[in-house]
Design brief:
Keywords: Membrane, Transmembrane, Transmembrane helix. It holds the Pfam family DUF983. The protein is mainly alpha-helical. It has one domain (about 15-120). It is built from three helices and no strands. The longest helix is centred in the last third of the chain and has 34 residues, at about 85-120. It is elongated. It starts with 12 loop residues before the first helix and ends in a 9-residue tail after the last helix.
Length: about 130
């Protein structure tokens, strides 16, 4: 009696997350993952890996808010206590910094989350192709 076991392809998690952070395909690392600012392609144009299985949803936004809040809030406190700038100056600087950092981090967190899901075989990213 032979026992057939379906094997799941072992995928390295951290390289896939790094490729996702760079907004590249988690499989080949060279094809672009995103077709717009946050729109994930259906498949990689280089290696043809299917990417439409992702379920990033609100995760990247939550991570962005968490990181930006933990960076900007202490900086706001230090800047206010140390230099006592005018309120409008303080607001302007930190509003621009917060928006800029958020716009930088959001697509990178989305790519990293898709890369993580791909590496772990979550949500239809099975290794059986």
């Amino acid at each position: 009696m032979t026992e057939e076991v379906e094997t799941h392809e072992d995928r390295a998690t951290w390289p896939a997350v790094r490729n996702g952070w760079r907004r590249r395909c988690p499989n080949c690392g060279s094809g672009p993952m995103l077709s717009g600012y946050l729109k994930v392609r259906d498949h990689c144009p280089v290696c043809r890996e299917e990417l439409f299985h992702h379920r990033a949803d609100d995760g990247p936004a939550y991570l962005t808010i968490l990181v930006v809040g933990h960076i900007m809030a202490p900086m706001l406190h230090v800047a206010f206590v140390t230099w006592r700038p005018e309120p409008l100056t303080l607001f302007t600087l930190f509003a621009v910094g917060t928006i800029g950092l958020s716009l930088y981090l959001l697509p990178r967190f989305k790519g990293a989350m898709v890369g993580f899901q791909w590496a772990r075989g979550m949500h239809g990213f099975s290794g059986g192709n």
